[in-house]
């Protein structure tokens, strides 16, 4: 079997389709890498190697990702009968196990993926609030500018083609109905949430908000 160490999911799936590798070989290779490296990483906290080998032997090879090994993060995505702790000690102490597959896990299985284990969520020991706050602030700025640009484009389109985009009851323009009723409320809520993040970072908030107000003033002026 060709080496699959640096192969992504589509490349590994192609190995199975071409007959160059079997699902079992891909899963065995993934398990071997985990066993060789994970003692120093503690990344795969809930291995399920025996179950994965059984599933690889039975997988339908016509599926798009037949036999491609993967891990699920032990966070949100539940896998029936497997530990589900989400980084919480009390769930670990209870040895809590998921009663059923979560929808995303079902989709992975239906596509042919073989889940070899569950990986660790972020450790509290590695949590850095300063890094998290900085990332949230910078990401909020990036998203705010995108949303402001979207709002300006929407206003310009209304100014330019006006009545053509307005819904007309049952015979209205489906795209217009989506524009007017499908995204505006979500856009406003998302914008307010992002501004709340930005406002929580006092050192730079006024500069950014001043720029936003100036940007919106220009938009209003241009649309008069």
Oligomer: single chain
Number of strands: 3
The portion of residues assigned to helices is: 55-70%
Whole-number mean pLDDT: 76
Low-confidence blocks of residues: 160-182, 202-206, 214-224
Please list the strands of the largest sheet in the order they lie side by side: 1-3-2
Number of helices: 9
Number of domains: 2
Spatial shape: globular
Distance between the termini: 67 Å
**Rg value:** 25 Å
How would you characterize the largest beta sheet?
A: 3 strands, mixed
SSE arrangement, N to C: HHEHEHHEHHHH
Sheet/helix structural class: mainly alpha
How large a portion of the residues is in β-strands, by DSSP E?
Answer: 5-15%
Structure description:
With 224 residues, this protein is mainly α. It folds into two domains: 9-126, no CATH class; 129-223. The chain contains nine helices and three strands. It has a three-stranded mixed beta sheet with strand order 1-3-2. α2 (23-37) runs antiparallel to α3, α6 (129-161) packs antiparallel against α8 (184-199) and α6 runs parallel beside α9 (202-223). The longest helix is centred in the middle third of the chain and has 33 residues, at 129-161. The N and C termini lie far apart (67 Å). Mean pLDDT is 76; it is low at 160-182, 202-206 and 214-224.
How would you briefly describe this protein structure?
With 224 residues, the protein is mostly helical.
């Amino acid at each position: 079997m060709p080496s699959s160490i640096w192969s992504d999911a589509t490349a590994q799936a192609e190995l199975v389709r071409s007959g160059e590798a079997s699902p079992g070989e891909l899963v065995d290779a993934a398990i071997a890498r985990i066993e060789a490296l994970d003692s120093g990483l503690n990344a795969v906290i809930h291995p399920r190697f025996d179950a994965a080998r059984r599933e690889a032997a039975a997988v339908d090879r016509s599926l798009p990702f037949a036999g491609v090994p993967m891990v699920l993060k032990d966070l949100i995505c539940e896998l029936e009968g497997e530990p589900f702790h989400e980084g919480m000690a009390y769930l670990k102490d209870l040895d809590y196990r998921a009663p059923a597959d979560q929808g995303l896990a079902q989709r992975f299985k239906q596509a042919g993926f073989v889940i070899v284990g569950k990986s660790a969520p972020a450790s509290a020991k590695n949590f850095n609030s300063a890094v998290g706050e900085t990332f949230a602030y910078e990401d909020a700025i990036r998203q705010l500018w995108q949303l402001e640009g979207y709002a300006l484009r929407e206003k310009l389109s209304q100014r330019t083609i006006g009545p053509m985009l307005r819904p007309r009851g049952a015979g209205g323009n489906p795209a217009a109905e989506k524009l007017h009723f499908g995204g505006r409320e979500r856009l406003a809520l998302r914008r307010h949430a992002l501004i709340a993040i930005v406002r929580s970072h006092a050192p730079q908030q006024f500069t950014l908000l001043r720029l936003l107000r100036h940007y919106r003033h220009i938009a209003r002026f241009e649309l008069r």
